[in-house]
Specification:
The complex is a heterodimer. Chain A is mostly helical. Chain A has 13 helices and 2 strands, in the order H-H-H-H-E-H-E-H-H-H-H-H-H-H-H. In chain A, strands 1-2 form a two-stranded antiparallel ribbon. Chain B has 2 domains: about 70 residues, no CATH class; about 270 residues, Orthogonal Bundle (ABC transporter involved in vitamin B12 uptake, BtuC).
Chain lengths: ~300, ~350
């Protein structure tokens, strides 16, 4: 049971990180559909770095940098060249799939050491809870720290309020003197960093070797999680755990030989995403205030 | 510091120049990345862009590969024009192929080619039904069609895998996940050329493209329906004032694009495979997104774009065989191409002005 919970947590961390990053980007008005691509880049970057430097911690840094690099490409085009965000995000995922396929080809068949668990002094000795919550790896702690940080950041810090203002009404934010494009660049790159680390977590903890398209749609599920969480950070934890649970449930089902065809079990995370989106969206359309109003709209500067 | 100044009217020159410049830039950046990753750039360039034209049967294979891309791309054009983001054509393609395959396999002895009219219609229905899910969710419950249509791709892939390994598996397939072969009436034949024989895999399915492109052109440019789609996409407020029914337009474009993707699925399977197997599409549904944009959301443009992208796809196959470059690398070119095409769209509407300092 304990092992099962640990697997569920591990499965949900890439989703959690990527969704948190995307939430910040979306709060600033940036809709980046390239999450899947940024995660793939993070994964291949981490694998390359760990194989080269032989230390899994460099994998986290490399993953973050790869994610930021991808987000920068997205930002140049959408923020500076004012391209359509939906199409550019799709392009980013397609681009990254090709790039990582090419960069990952020499890595095929090589295995990396996984990220070590860190026991927190005394707390780790608490029965059951201790080994679940306080014997995690660095990224797991980091992702919780990020969630707590951005919850406070968005609610109480001045920068957080400015970020939300930019996402809600970029014209007004601009006219009172906030640098809309610069703020969006930061938010977008933060999103890239989180998605990159989330992607890096996949080879660092879940499957320690490269395969083409190894993120398997997690980036898209992360996008759905942001909607599911109605742009409220802590709800992403709940959502990510539910999806982690569903993913693991279908794997357990396959292993235990439940009398349901394995393909139908594998559909569960995707079907659950559609169902979750449907339940939340109906409610959201009645209460439109949570969706950033300038989301996905290009900002043309002063005119 | 660069600033953008709106043009008084959309620049006509840019409409032609932008795609050409985009292709040039794409090749340049693609080669830069190849060089950086240690591949011979000129050899890659030759394999991807020149080798597909090196033999006549290869040229006809370009048409064969372009066929599904153009059909799907034409459907997606209708969606993108009206600002509806169907990115699940891959799933609609699969479901179309699957429904048509089910009907084809239900009549194992049929020989008349008129049967194709039924299977192709079934493909249209299968694809349209799959697209109906995001359509109804978007219009009734305001659910994002991007995520729903994409999630349904994964569901469709798993579903066909299940069907081919389970209910529709041929008991005589020696354990391979294959259905029975289609009856003669459900197969699309290769085109015989007098004196030459067959040109590669060139098949009669290509005729559908030559039928579709003019029909789509007339629909988009000369009918009220096409006009409504354009207005909804470019000026949603105006569409509202004009009393166009937003929801029925959204449902229509999704059904049409899903249906066309399904038809592409039937043609692909009936002409090139001849039975159902777990993988029928090879990413046509995603590639067609690029085709629609490269074709500037116009039917004639999409015809050319389909041929260009099919060339790159075949070239990538060649590069994989001769140089060991993974063929997903086409994504690299497609992504960069899309970035520059979209930038071109901005430059159509805005002039660049360079100014000193900040």
């Amino acid at each position: 049971m304990e092992a099962l919970i640990l697997t569920i947590i591990a499965t949900s961390i890439p989703l959690l990180l990527a969704a948190t990053g995307e939430l910040i980007a979306e709060k600033s008005g940036i809709l980046n559909l390239g999450v899947e691509g940024m995660m793939l880049s993070g994964a291949v970057g981490a694998l390359g770095a760990v194989l080269w430097l032989e230390n899994p911690y460099y994998g986290i840094i490399a993953g973050a940098l790869s994610g930021v690099l991808m987000a920068s490409i997205f930002s140049v085009f959408t923020i500076n060249f004012m391209t359509n965000q939906v199409a550019t995000g799709l392009g980013l995922t397609i681009f990254a799939t090709g790039l990582t396929g090419l960069a990952g080809a020499p890595l095929v068949g090589k295995t990396i050491p996984s990220l070590p668990k860190i026991e927190i002094f005394l707390l780790a000795d608490i029965p059951i809870i201790g080994s679940i919550l306080f014997k995690q790896d660095f990224v797991a702690y980091l992702s919780i720290a990020i969630i707590i940080f951005i919850s406070f950041f968005l609610k109480y810090s001045k920068s957080g309020i400015i970020l939300r203002a930019v996402g809600d009404d970029h014209q007004s934010a601009h006219s009172v003197g906030y640098p809309v494009k610069k703020i969006r660049w930061y938010a977008s790159c933060f999103g890239g960093m989180c998605a990159g680390i989330g992607g890096a977590y996949i080879p660092l903890v879940l499957t320690p070797h490269w395969s083409e398209g190894m993120t398997a749609g997690r980036g898209w599920i992360a996008l759905a999680l942001v909607v599911f969480a109605s742009w409220i950070p802590w709800r992403i934890i709940v959502g990510a755990l539910i999806f982690g649970g569903i993913t693991i449930a279908q794997l357990v089902g396959q292993a235990r030989g439940w009398p349901i065809p394995s393909q139908l079990l594998s559909m569960m995370p995707y079907l659950a995403t559609i169902i979750a989106l449907t339940m939340i969206s109906g409610r959201l359309s009645k209460n439109n205030s949570v969706v950033p109003s300038s989301l996905g709209k290009p900002f043309f500067g002063s005119q | 510091m660069i600033t953008f100044i709106p043009r008084d009217k959309v620049s006509k020159n840019w409409i032609i120049i932008a795609p050409i410049l985009s292709i040039v830039f794409t090749i340049f950046f693609g080669l830069l990345i190849f060089t950086f990753l240690g591949y011979n750039p000129l050899e890659t360039l030759y394999q991807i862009f020149v080798s597909p034209f090196s033999r006549i049967d290869r040229i006809s294979d370009i048409l064969v590969k372009a066929c599904p891309l153009i059909i799907i791309g034409t459907g997606l054009m209708l969606c993108f024009k009206s600002n509806v983001w169907n990115i699940g054509a891959e799933g609609q393609f699969i479901m179309g192929a699957l429904l048509a395959g089910f009907i084809a396999l239900s009549f194992p002895n049929i020989e008349t080619k008129f049967f194709l009219l039924i299977t192709i219609s079934a493909g249209f229905v299968g694809g349209a039904l799959w697209a109906f899910i995001p359509a109804i969710l978007k219009t009734k419950l305001n659910v994002n069609e991007i995520l729903v249509s994409l999630m349904l791709v994964y569901v469709a892939m798993l579903f066909i895998d299940f069907i081919v390994r389970g209910p529709l598996r041929d008991p005589m397939s020696f354990g391979f996940p294959l259905s029975k072969p289609y009856p003669e009436g459900a197969l699309i034949n290769k085109i015989p050329f007098p004196g030459i024989g067959f040109l590669g895999q060139l098949h009669y399915g290509i005729l559908f493209v030559f039928l579709l492109v003019p029909v789509a052109w007339i629909f988009v440019n000369k009918t009220l329906g096409g006009f409504k789609i354009n207005v909804l996409g470019s000026a949603p407020q105006a569409a509202k004032f004009a009393g166009f029914k937003r929801n029925s337009i959204i449902i229509t474009v999704l059904l049409l694009s899903g249906g066309l993707a399904g038809v592409a699925g039937v043609i692909e399977v009936s002409a090139n495979i001849g039975q159902l197997q777990p993988e029928v599409s090879f990413g046509y549904g995603f590639t067609a997104i690029i085709v629609a944009f490269l074709g500037r959301l116009s039917p004639v443009g999409i015809l050319f774009a389909g041929i260009i992208i099919a060339t790159v796809k075949l070239g990538a196959d060649n590069a994989q065989m001769t140089m060991g470059i993974p063929k997903v690398v086409t994504g690299l070119f497609e992504g960069i191409l899309l970035f520059f095409l979209l930038t071109g769209e901005t430059l159509q509407k805005y002039k660049i002005k360079w100014s000193e300092g900040k």
